[in-house]
């Protein structure tokens, strides 16, 4: 090894990206299983889409004057000079797959869920990463029925409850539609133009292109300006007002407490009418965000089909579970520990274990470890009820020792009868 090699750091993961280590897996499993449970109950089908998508998909849907498009896309140029993007969100991909594969033929509503990694070139900070994971639930329908907005909010809350999270808060707003939003936009621009000198540089730019996003700015001085900004509820057209009223009535009927947040907007252009965010105690910001996106399917080249959905950040959900001290409880049954002694026994071990696998008998082994003591210590640590001890003598006699690790009582069993003997013992456990 050269001197340079010795002193240089080992290769590290890219900035803002994380390894999900074995000790974190139970919580990740719990979140995925909870999502699956909710999906099955409310009849959402699963769909998966590629991690890479064409750049145009996001340029034309998410909107060029959003942070995601302006600053955050990971762009890959292929050998044939095509520009692909590591997907920054799932909704546009699911909508593309829906249109491209003609899934309208499956009828309405089309309820779909997905999960997976997403990539945004953000400044890494607590709860904000460059690679993160989302659970996504969407409903595409042939009419913008408010019952779907409510059903999705309900599914989101129940999902978080199954993840054992407490103090769940729902914030809702409506951002109107193509008919009423332009008027509100104008009013916002008028208000903020009179405060130009107090705006952050990003907001100054957004003021002319996407003024609703000024309400979403996290800069202190912009937050304080928001307090006197006009609110959209005063500008909603009748259909948007009725829709919003209906959504709230459903939530009340379900006894889901919500808070109206007059300044809640979503960063993405394709949203219309209902927008919502969900927070929990100990979570960083919103852990779930969603809303109605009535224009997206048509933008992608499909029919004019309204839709509504949400995305939950898995890292943020897991961080909140950790912050709230969620205990999962261990319902895994301990496995029978297989111990070998000597080279001959080692050679036969995998065959014996294979026979037990076919009989559905749960086995754990550490075939790489040579000493009996070491193997017994591991068996003890894992809380195995029985150990199987297979040595030279047993290998010659086609038998094996079955040892009860609680009582220390052991018996020699012919290999041919091993599976049946263990089944009986496990039944009596
Ligand atoms: P969005 O797709 O921006 O509406 O975000 C939906 C949810 O994804 C948020 O509520 C967060 O839980 C999560 N999320 C968004 N961006 C990030 C990020 N950079 N790092 C971690 N989680 C994120």
Q: Overview of this structure, please?
A:
The chain has two domains: 12-180 and 236-323, BirA Bifunctional Protein, domain 2; 336-427, 3-Layer(aba) Sandwich (Rossmann fold). 38% of the residues lie in helices and 21% in strands. It has helices spanning 3-7, 25-41, 55-61, 67-70, 91-100, 146-162, 181-193, 201-209, 220-226, 238-253, 296-299, 314-323, 343-358, 372-381, 392-397, 418-427, and strands at 45-46, 52-54, 74-77, 83-86, 110-119, 131-140, 168-174, 258-260, 272-280, 288-292, 307-313, 336-340, 363-365, 386-390, 399-404, 410-414. The strands form three sheets. An eight-stranded mixed beta sheet has the order 1-5-6-11-10-9-7-8. A five-stranded mixed beta sheet has the order 13-12-14-15-16, with helices on both faces. Strand 15 and strand 16 (410-414) form a beta hairpin. Residues 89, 120, 122, 127-129, 132, 134, 286-289, 311-313, 315-316 line the site of adenosine monophosphate. The site of adenosine monophosphate (AMP) has 17 residues, from strand 6, strand 10, strand 11 and helix 12.
